[in-house]
Design a protein that fits this description.
It is a single chain. With 50 residues, the protein is of the alpha+beta class. The chain has one domain (5-49). The chain contains two helices and three strands; from the N terminus they run βαββα. Strands 1-2-3 form a three-stranded antiparallel sheet. The longest helix is centred in the last third of the chain and has 16 residues, at 34-49. 2% of the residues are buried.
């Protein structure tokens, strides 16, 4: 079983209230604001329920 999305939170991310996102098959998507990442994940989950 593969992990689709990986969140990496380093010192710089902590200071910037951000999360580095890596997605299986797409690679490193870079650092994004924490609130944006949470919203994206919730939308993805909601999309799977339909």
């Amino acid at each position: 079983m593969k992990v689709h999305t990986l969140f990496v939170i380093g010192k710089r991310d902590m200071g910037a209230d951000a999360v580095s996102v890596r997605v299986h098959g797409k690679g490193n998507l870079g650092s994004k604001p924490r609130a944006e990442v949470i919203a994206d994940v919730l939308l993805s989950i909601e999309g799977r329920r339909q």
